[in-house]
Amino acid sequence: MAEQKDSPLTKTHAVLYKISKWFSYVGGAVAIIMMLMVVVDVIVRFTFNKSILGSVELASYMLSIIAFTTIPFVESERMHIAIPLLFDRFPKKVRLFVSALVGFIGIGILVLITLTSYLLAVEYIGRGKVTAVLSIPIYPFVFIAAVCISLYTIILIVNTIEDIYQYK
What we know:
Layout: H1 2-5, H2 8-48, H3 55-76, H4 84-87, H5 92-127, H6 139-167
Helix pairs in contact: 2-3, 2-6, 3-6, 5-6
């Protein structure tokens, strides 16, 4: 049992958990900032009949940060939606096959999304793409998404390996 506790996979999972938790804190902080900005915008809109310039644009980019920074933590906690009612009744080998298949398909898709995100961020740097209202560069938001998807992919790889060993 002590050998399993100190396995490289367990240590890797612990490190990834801490990193993903830190990213989720960033997402939570951005959510609070966004919430405050929206509240202030609504108050200013009703009080002075004006809105904060670019508040809708900022909120949309903040939402992307919130979404992408929290997804790796959800995977590290294994809290994605699952329906174990039927799955738990399958024989052990079927559960192994389904877990491995779903994991490998997910990894493949996430690798493609990650690579595309990095390439898109580099393209946006090259073209100097900025937001419409405030002229904020877009590439940092795409890089944040790419980094978070990379982390999600790595966590999914570790979780898939753990699932395969669990069923053996």
